[in-house]
Design a protein that fits this description.
It is built from 13 helices and 25 strands. It is an alpha/beta fold. A 5-stranded parallel beta sheet has the order 3-2-4-1-5, sandwiched between helices. A 5-stranded mixed beta sheet has the order 7-8-11-9-10, with helices on both faces. Helix 6 runs parallel beside helix 7 and helix 11 packs parallel to helix 12.
Length: 554
Amino acid sequence: MQKGKIFVVGFGPGDREHITKRAVDALQQSDHIMGYKTYVELIEHLVTAKTIVSTGMTEEVSRAQEAVKQAEAGHIVAVISSGDAGVYGMAGLVYEVLIEKGWTAKEGIEVEVVPGISAINSCASLLGAPVMHDSCTISLSDHLTPWTVIEKRIEAAAMADFVVAFYNPKSGRRTRQIVEAQRILLKYRSPDTPVGLVKAAYRDTQDIVLTTLAEMLEHDIGMLTTVVVGNSSTFYYDNKIITPRGYQRKYTLGDEKQLLKPHQRLKKEAEPWALDQETGESKTGYEKIVAIEKKTVEPAADIKANALQLANEALTLVHKETSAVKVEENPFLVQQQVESIFEFAVSPGVANKMITPHQMITLAEVVGERGTMEYTPDHRLVLKVPTDSPEKLVKTVEQTGLLVQPVGDVVIVKACDFCYGEKAESIPYAEQIMETLGGIKMPKELHVGFNGCGMACYRAVFDDIGIVYRKKKFDLFIGSKPVGRTAHAAQPVLEGIDPEKLIPLLTDIVADYKEHAHPNERFFKYFKRVKKILNFNYVDMSCKIKVEEAPCGD
């Protein structure tokens, strides 16, 4: 006899566009389809099965038993669930029935669980981006789970500031559970916490309601509704519910927001709250369960608040309300403060490498206990400081005589300093380059190196743009590859540039790269791709000896 098979198929929200190809293939390969009658109606047009068995809401066990029976008789059977079959679906129940019969994967019938889009994902896509941070799903159905257990799970999720998606929130007979869930959440969360109610996502009867934790019960909630409750940092923006990806925001000079680059995200200094893998310890103070006092603020008649301002305010303040309503302090209210991390670089100057004790003391005071200070290959110190007053920090540092610069994909200018400024004739030109181009936003970090004499003892010819001061004029080099096993110097493109022509020429080169380079494309790769920058034609300066490629293929 032919060996049977069971497909446990999650078909997502129910519309054709959100059912996976594998799910459709499994349905069309099956001799028998079994499922809750509402679900069968949603996929009936996709199947060619000999038998379609649709049963009621509480007959899941009988469906699983019948599916196993038919598969043992040699048939191919599909047991269907909306959403994902492994999330409050039929997958676990099918395995339970099989296990009771002594089934093993090696000897018994084949079982394939076909994943689908769960309600938390489909509903989140309609609401905006509410589950960008840690989240959980909790079923409010106490048919199979004691309500005391469900209560504890709601309380734990609320206390830990999880975004919560409630499945099976309410039925004709179960009307109190969602009320109790709201009561528990309000113990730990602001009444104004954003809540999304999504009924029948992506079906003809779809209905979406944006509300708050305090007002959610004023709207219709039923078995087909998924209730998505934000965490303490979730906010509304243009009829969307948004949860920030983390509890920190990075800032640098010239940018309102400066996100970490992919290769920086897992650095230890970028996540000071993380568990130390060697000691098993972690720093405290990044989590907060605090009482929030409602403050009364007089409305300003001449302020026109738009959605972006409100969103930024929400991100920065996280529910520091401006309501005139007096509310009693709640000692349990969870508030995960969104912390602003200001990132900037400092150096003693374009052509100076001496830092005074006073400057170092000031930097240490600015960084404090929770900030970081890192020396970089660019001869700069990069500071990352938790603060809501970046302007004040910049002013404090600049008053010591240090040069403050932005970080990230910007123009970085550095001149030689090995002679301690003895050959000072060219220094004003280097400083003018810094004033004109330093810190300009680029597709990728762009290094401009400056040598103050013909000895070229600094690495300028190994920077993206290299400048050598010689005989009161300038030589220009562009397009070096500064790192890697195939690294090479920049291409000499022009000699004897008059001083008054240098800044306009550099400005044009930088503008060309900024306008035409791809995002994240390094300068040497751009030059190699376009073959010409201004009037300078690309020449291959790479090593002519065959070198095995690096694993990254660079």
